[in-house]
Write a structure and sequence with these properties.
single chain; 412 residues; Aspartate Aminotransferase, domain 1; Aspartate Aminotransferase, domain 2; 15 strands; binds pyridoxal-5'-phosphate
């Protein structure tokens, strides 16, 4: 028997980049373990960090009253008070942001936060402006209506023979009454670009001028998990919405996202939480709260997680450069943060979706770059010339995967 979906049901189930990516990720992890998974955004398994989560779980179990309260009680729709207070103190001490608990909303992962936020601030003609396309695939289908995003193509700066970097093209950025918010990920998924402090300040000032929020997605950024390979200043004021996540610390299974914003936005988010979820999962908050108080979360990020990803990226970069065919015009985006390599093959024949398909046939999963270029007003050939590669997978997957990518690029 076939039941009929609503138009929203159709929209959310019709197949999208993020759905393909998460299905690939899920089946590679469970059904096809032989696949070389260089696609999804799963955080790497870092033994020292995994040991810390196990230790924290044991500490929670050793406190029966705390454990029972964690499992047995709903939190407030805005989050777990003890976690929110610890987070405010942590951020205020380091950055002087003057936050109170009312400036925080917790969500079931930051993906969940963006769904609320985008639909709360845009729709019925109002749009979210992405000032630097390509941008995170996971936003693309979050609008409850079509056409929620308008994107500005990045300006490409070629660096030497094999590298390049995206810059925000401020001359092409158009902000009028139809824009409800500006959003950027920093570090950017997919490219590993980190917009500079200066670019961020300019965006914040532009947003302020137009009375709209600037949303900064710091899923990979500072102060945790700090998968960022250069000095940047975390920034927040009342005109900004900063999103953090526990996922890339190695806790994606806890589904914990954190939104820092003015009280109007956090209250709205809490209200939506109440309608959609009643309350959030609280296990991630319980695990991490004391590590905010002690500052351990920062030490773990800076002394274990960041060096781990930096080491992986250095290894992968060397391998990539040594195997990729010299006569193919490939370039890697400057690797400034995140866990991805963003490879641009100028003039790629057949396009990136075809390259994804051919690689999958050979047992390697990457992500076709075209998914990251939504919301553009005009066709852009560059949008079909890139692939995203997870650079922090196990050494063997990187080595065998890169050999296959090189072979496919060379021989088709
Ligand atoms: N933002 C970016 C840039 C991401 O890459 C991801 C996940 O990969 C998310 C947000 C959502 O992460 P989560 O919902 O696990 O917090």
């Amino acid at each position: 028997m076939e039941f009929k979906y609503s138009s929203l049901g159709d929209r959310l189930t019709r197949g999208s980049g993020i759905q393909e990516l998460m299905h690939d990720l899920g089946s590679a992890l469970s059904e096809s373990p032989d696949m070389l998974m260089l696609g999804g955004g799963n955080p790497a398994a870092i033994p020292e960090v995994q040991a810390i989560w196990r230790r924290r779980m044991q500490e929670i179990l050793d406190d029966p009253a705390g454990f029972d309260a964690m499992l047995g009680n709903y939190d407030t729709p805005q989050g777990r008070p003890v976690f929110m207070d610890a987070l405010c103190d942590f951020l205020n001490q380091r950055y002087g942001w003057g936050l109170t608990r009312k400036n925080i909303t917790i969500t079931n992962g930051s993906q969940n936060a963006f769904f609320y936020l985008f639909n709360m601030l845009a729709g019925s003609g109002r749009k979210i402006l992405l000032p630097l396309s390509p941008e995170y695939i996971g936003y693309a289908d979050q609008g409850l209506e079509d056409g929620l995003f308008v994107s500005c193509p990045a300006r490409i700066e070629k660096i030497g023979e094999r590298s390049f970097k995206y810059r925000i093209d401020f001359d092409r950025l158009e902000i009028d009454d139809s824009i409800g918010a500006i959003c950027v990920s920093r570090p950017t998924n997919p490219s590993g670009n980190v917009i500079t402090d200066d670019e961020l300040r300019r965006l914040r000032d532009l947003a302020k001028q137009h009375g709209i929020p600037l949303i900064v997605d710091s899923a990979y950024g500072a102060p945790f998990p700090h998968i960022i390979f250069q000095d940047v200043t975390p920034m927040w004021d009342e005109s900004m919405v900063v999103s953090l996540s526990l996922s890339k610390l190695g806790l994606p299974g806890t589904r914990t996202g954190i939104l820092i914003a003015n009280e109007e936005i956090t209250r709205g988010m809490g209200e939506i939480n109440a309608v959609v979820n009643l309350a959030n999962g609280n296990i991630g908050q319980e695990i991490v709260a004391p590590m905010l108080v002690s500052g351990e979360i920062e030490t773990v990020s800076r002394e274990i997680i960041q060096p781990f990803y930096a080491g992986k990226a250095a290894f992968a970069k060397e391998k990539f450069a040594s195997v990729m065919p010299q006569d193919v015009p490939w370039r890697l985006h400057a690797n400034e943060g995140s866990m991805f390599f963003w490879c641009w093959i100028e003039g790629l024949s057949g396009g990136s979706a075809e390259l994804y398909r051919r690689l999958k046939e050979r047992g390697v999963i990457v992500v076709s770059g075209h998914y990251f270029f939504y919301g553009l007003a005009e066709e852009w050939s560059h949008a079909n010339e890139c692939i995203r590669i997870h650079s922090a997978m196990p050494t063997d997957s990187i080595e065998r995967g890169f050999d296959i990518i090189a072979d496919v690029l060379k021989n088709g």
